[in-house]
């Protein structure tokens, strides 16, 4: 393990301190936690608070999206480990300005249970809390008898939507409604070229041969659905797009938003080439995305690979929310 | 019968078992999880140790609550809220009864409610459930319960992403729960 | 070599196409070139044009900084190879709106000569052209008898300054003056944990052992000044800061801007930890930066490592330029 | 005497040498440069080949200019503008004289002006200069000139970043220039 760190057990606290000290104009640390709240308090007055978070290692998620028009607060857990209820609760309190707080949770049992307990704590304090459990990763077949699908890069688009709605004065109920209807239209699938190394673990979560890739890997090195020899970018796009299509037909008369997300170690050069092939293959289907972003948004430490998120903009308002101006470090 | 005193001893013993088996638990979590269960439990038990050290002459309820809060506020992973909820439920119930099996029953109910898992889902429930239901806990009951998770297909937690590939591995949370009950067995005066 | 690409010889053209197609609101391709110009033409009217560029592989540099308030156009050469004069000339023409064009060139013999020839071509067309040759990398001892110092991440801050000045209506002469005086105060130094692989070459530019790092490496795998065993983040900061201090004393009564720049494969987690240690050690010198950015701005494909740029804000106006709002993909 | 015809043959021969030695040139560029000189020259000579193929019955000036533009618009690296300038200067001069050594002299002056290097800086100048100054080019002059760069310390181009560590390696641009002049030697009617 070759990393620019000090003691592995201190990576999260040092990272959070580094982040808030580098960007005091956006972020403030909530004392005695690894949670961060928007510095621009005025921008939250009279609005529903939006809180997200999860394990660390997904930078710039989640704190990079805290700021006017997007998240109110973000909580950083240990690397690849959910934050604890007390910390989430502190973020909820900091985000509440009398209109309630909306939680964006990724569908992992740890996250769901910890956020749930935080919600219980907040409700004891009469803070209204609602939430969405994002499960956009189509790698895993959904089933009533499993944990269900994981939450991955589509979460970033979810942040953008609910953040914009909150900034425009939507109520907690309206935001919940928005989140639910949008979620059904957000699908993500990834391909990995290498795995991440959790500092405290010291070795990669899995290993791939020099010429091997794995489709469907999660953002914490969860196993995917197939390993094979590395393919051209064109063929990777074909595989991922067909997988998405099986879950959500791509229609030429629909409007789509697209997020090509780098997993951490994959250079933008490769992400742009992938995007080029993607746009070609969407064009073959007479589709031209109306919104697109390419870059590292929901990473997996230094994993190499990309994920592709396709968001079917069934409601016109959603595009407006995606384009709504924000003041954050990373959007 | 649980008392403040023997519960603290129980936790001392559990702490040592986690410390000794930290790497093993993380290893168990590697093929079917994310390889951190040992680290998570160690962080949690460090939290418990600290919480308990701060109490002066606590009653049982205070002890159980401190254990719960130590776990809840330090673990983060799935195991944190589950173990935490278990001890929280025991704390709520202990003014009424201090009988171990009655307390473990409310704990089990809490775990099931929090995580939505049931018997056979290849989780810690598969150890908590037979132990809580037995009138006399024995090493064999614990070991059989742990071993039973090996052939199960996971339906909750990270291991469920693996589908059939989760079969053939012990569930890490079942193993750590085994340590908890072995520690309980070994703690004089608890049973 | 494991990369998400198609044919290695087409990476640049596919990347450029992917970029302009993903971000049509910012970028337009200049026909028959790998040069890109701002889509928002109105924002350039009556203003000095700013053109930058260089080899590809430094993404988001340079096209990521094209947009209102920053660059007018950017030229992408082959990977780690200067763009050719005809392409630079096309960018100059597209950027010229009657007030002349200012070129930001990094100090490599290829870049200097190719931009120089482009300048000759433009002057034949009566376009006024001036330029700055950025040489912020202090790894190499400067000397009259060498190529001199290389241009690295400090170039991004240079883009920001001259872009803001141009947007505010500065003349070509004023911009040249600004660039020259700022340049003297921008110093950069890097540390690498691994090297980049140029797709057409297929193997890394150098190799480091599993526990080795190299100080002073350039953005094209140029050799640095020392190799040693990996150190803690704190110690890396100490080494780099002392190296900068030897070139430019750090004074508690000066104002500083800081850029912590990821080289491509180093996760933000590590960059934030590095920033934390940096801010500590600056604090030891009673210095608190008034401007800071942390992230991947001038990369070296998938090289792992960071560079540290310290900019002594001798002139008050410079901070204003750094904070001036822009509309780009990557600033 | 250069003519349109023999200059095209010269370029054919240079093209083949670059093609054959592409990897070797890039290898030479690895320890003291960025490992791309062979690729750069190959891209440039492909450009030259294309430019020349488009000309119908060109005169010498047109040929020399096409060579220059092919190199300038395709290479990008340091070698592009340098080789390009050399042929551009020859194109400018060739209405006045077609003598090889006179044309090489103006080419050398162009290279020196463009790159600011002088003899002894461990660049292509160290081959161009002795060749341009000799009344009769011989294989020995070329080879000695190439070999002379080995012990020099680079003062221009990427290799200069290495300081003393640049000593002990041949300069890649000197070697490719050597191919250019060997090709010239081998082209009937040029000398
Ligand atoms: N929904 C659930 N119900 C009961 N137990 C669960 C559930 N999800 C996970 N577990 C238990 O938690 C253990 C994993 O804990 P740990 O590795 O600490 O958390 P994480 O999975 O978040 O990394 C599993 O082995 C399993 O016993
Ligand atoms: N300033 C200069 N003057 C003369 N020749 C130079 C100069 N800079 C570089 N060269 C020549 O160019 C060669 C390197 O060319 P190449 O590898 O194609 O370009 P780059 O260095 O941009 O990668 C060197 O070996 C040297 O002969
Ligand atoms: Mg975990
Ligand atoms: Mg785990
Ligand atoms: Mg080069
Ligand atoms: Mg080279």
UniProtKB/TrEMBL annotation, chains B, D:
Residues 5-186 form the DhaL domain. The keyword Kinase applies. GO terms for molecular function: glycerone kinase activity; phosphoenolpyruvate-glycerone phosphotransferase activity. Pathway: Polyol metabolism; glycerol degradation. GO terms for cellular component: cytosol. It catalyses: dihydroxyacetone + phosphoenolpyruvate = dihydroxyacetone phosphate + pyruvate. The keyword Transferase applies. Pfam families: Dak2 (PF02734). Its EC number is 2.7.1.121. Coiled coil: none annotated. GO terms for biological process: glycerol catabolic process. Homodimer. The dihydroxyacetone kinase complex is composed of a homodimer of DhaM, a homodimer of DhaK and the subunit DhaL. This is phosphoenolpyruvate--glycerone phosphotransferase.
């Amino acid at each position: 393990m070759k990393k620019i760190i000090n003691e592995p057990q201190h990576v999260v606290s040092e990272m959070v301190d580094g982040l808030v000290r580098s960007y005091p104009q956006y972020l403030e640390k909530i004392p005695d936690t690894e949670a961060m709240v928007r510095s621009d308090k005025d921008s939250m007055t009279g609005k529903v608070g939006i809180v997200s978070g999860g394990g660390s290692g997904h930078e710039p998620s989640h704190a990079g999206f805290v700021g006017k028009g997007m998240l109110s607060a973000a909580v950083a857990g240990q690397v690849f480990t959910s934050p604890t209820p007390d910390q989430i609760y502190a973020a909820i309190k900091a985000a509440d300005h009398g209109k309630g707080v909306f939680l964006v949770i990724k569908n992992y049992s740890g996250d769901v249970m910890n956020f749930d307990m935080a919600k219980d704590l907040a409700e004891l304090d009469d803070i209204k809390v609602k939430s969405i459990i994002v499960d956009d990763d189509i790698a895993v077949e959904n089933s009533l008898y499993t944990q269900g699908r994981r939450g991955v890069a589509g979460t970033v688009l979810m942040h953008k939507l609910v953040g914009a709605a909150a900034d425009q004065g939507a109520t907690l109920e309206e935001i919940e409604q928005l989140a639910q209807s949008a979620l059904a239209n957000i699908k993500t699938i990834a391909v990995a070229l290498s795995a991440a190394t959790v500092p405290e673990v010291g070795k990669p979560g899995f290993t791939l041969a020099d010429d091997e890739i794995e489709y469907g890997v999660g953002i914490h090195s969860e196993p995917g659905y197939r390993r094979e020899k590395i393919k051209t970018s064109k063929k990777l796009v074909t595989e991922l797009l067909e997988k998405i299509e099986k879950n959500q037909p791509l229609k030429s008369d629909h409007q789509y938003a697209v997020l090509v997300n780098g997993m951490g170690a994959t250079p933008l050069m490769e992400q742009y080439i992938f995007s080029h092939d993607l746009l070609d293959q969407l064009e073959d289907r007479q589709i031209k995305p109306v919104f697109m972003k390419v870059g590292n948004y929901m990473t997996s430490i230094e994993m190499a690979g990309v994920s592709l998120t396709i968001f079917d903009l069934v409601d016109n308002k959603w595009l407006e929310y995606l384009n709504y101006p924000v003041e954050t470090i990373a959007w | 019968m649980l008392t403040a005193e023997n519960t603290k001893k129980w936790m001392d013993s559990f702490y040592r078992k986690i410390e000794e088996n930290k790497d093993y638990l993380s290893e168990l979590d590697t093929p079917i999880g994310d390889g951190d269960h040992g680290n998570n439990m160690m962080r949690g038990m460090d939290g418990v140790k600290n919480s308990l050290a701060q109490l002066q002459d606590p009653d049982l309820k205070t002890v159980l609550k401190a254990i719960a809060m130590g776990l809840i506020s330090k673990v983060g992973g799935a195991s944190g809220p589950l173990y935490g909820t278990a001890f929280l439920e025991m704390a709520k119930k202990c003014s009424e009864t201090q009988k171990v099996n009655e307390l473990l029953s409310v704990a089990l109910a809490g775990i099931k409610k929090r995580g939505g898992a049931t018997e056979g889902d290849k989780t810690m429930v598969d150890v908590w459930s037979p132990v809580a239901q037995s009138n006399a806990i024995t090493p064999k009951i614990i070991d059989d319960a742990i071993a039973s998770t090996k052939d199960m297909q996971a339906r909750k937690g990270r291991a469920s992403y693996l589908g059939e590939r989760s079969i053939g591995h012990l569930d890490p949370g079942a193993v750590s729960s085994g340590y908890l009950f072995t520690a309980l067995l070994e703690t004089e005066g608890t049973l």
